[in-house]
Amino acid sequence: MQEEMENWKQLAVAREKDLVEAQLQRDLFAAQLPSGPNEGGPQDEILNELMAKLGERINSIKDYKELSRTQLEYDLSNALRQLDQMRVRFENAEAARKALHEKYKNVLEKADGTLASPLRRLNLTFPTTGQRKTGNLNSAAQKKKEKRQILCTPKNGAGPASRTFIPVLFDDSTEENTAPEPQNLEQDEEMAEERTLLRLEMVNNHLSQTVTEKEAQLESLSQKQKEQAKVWLEEKQVLRESESALKAKVEQLSLENHGLREKLITETSRNDVLSRRIYSANDEVCALSE
């Protein structure tokens, strides 16, 4: 049983080594794919050297626990390396987003300074004494009409197709032709900047989600490590219990074998005594018959 257990352990370690070597070959092939047609370059040499070192390290492993620990350390280092790469990309995207935000802010401030309409002057007119006297005699309909004209009147000089109204209290007759028209080019640039900011925000959200997923993978990996260690301890405990039970059974069988041997010796001696008695009795019978 002990030999079978040792053979089983060695077979498990060999299979784990083969699995780790296959995973390393897969990672090496995946790392060589983005390099393109640059075969035999310095990157390939570094990867081959790293593969050789990892192969020597795997071949030097002789225990299942050490193999599991090495494999988990390799997975953890690979996950941490990917997390560092994602953090660098996230920081670069964040810096680019801040730069574009500042640029967009400056463009908006410049647009507010150039495209904003100027303030209109108040047209404050004071009636004369004659107008004050006649103003008291206006009827209710005239007051209502004047109130309606004060609230909203058509723009001076506009045709019947015009739908633009300006308040009477503000006089912009001298400044109505000085307001600049909106420029389509600057609006297109603003829209392009806004689309770029939205795209960067989407990339930022994607990177944040990727970092969150990597952290969740690290958490699940550590949880799997704990669970695997717990399972290994349970299997080790079961193995020890079965080994102790087998040892007890072997001792019991050896004791039973020893007892059976002693019984066989006593039975053999008894058989010899009985055989001698039979021989002596036969001799006596022969003597009496003669």
Describe this structure in words.
It is a single chain. The chain has 290 residues and is mainly alpha-helical. The chain has a domain at 1-62. It is 78% helix and 3% strand. The chain contains six helices and four strands. The chain has helices spanning 2-32, 42-59, 64-115, 129-135, 140-151, 184-289; strands at 121-122, 153-154, 165-166, 170-171. The strands form two sheets. It has a two-stranded antiparallel sheet with strand order 1-4. Strands 2-3 form a two-stranded antiparallel ribbon. Helix 1 (2-32) runs antiparallel to helix 2, helix 1 (2-32) packs parallel to helix 3 and helix 3 (64-115) runs antiparallel to helix 6. It is rod-shaped and about 180 Å long. The model is unreliable at 35-40, 117-124, 151-155 and 157-182 (pLDDT under 50). Keywords: Coiled coil. Residues 128-141 have a biased composition (Polar residues). Residues 128-147 are annotated as: Disordered.
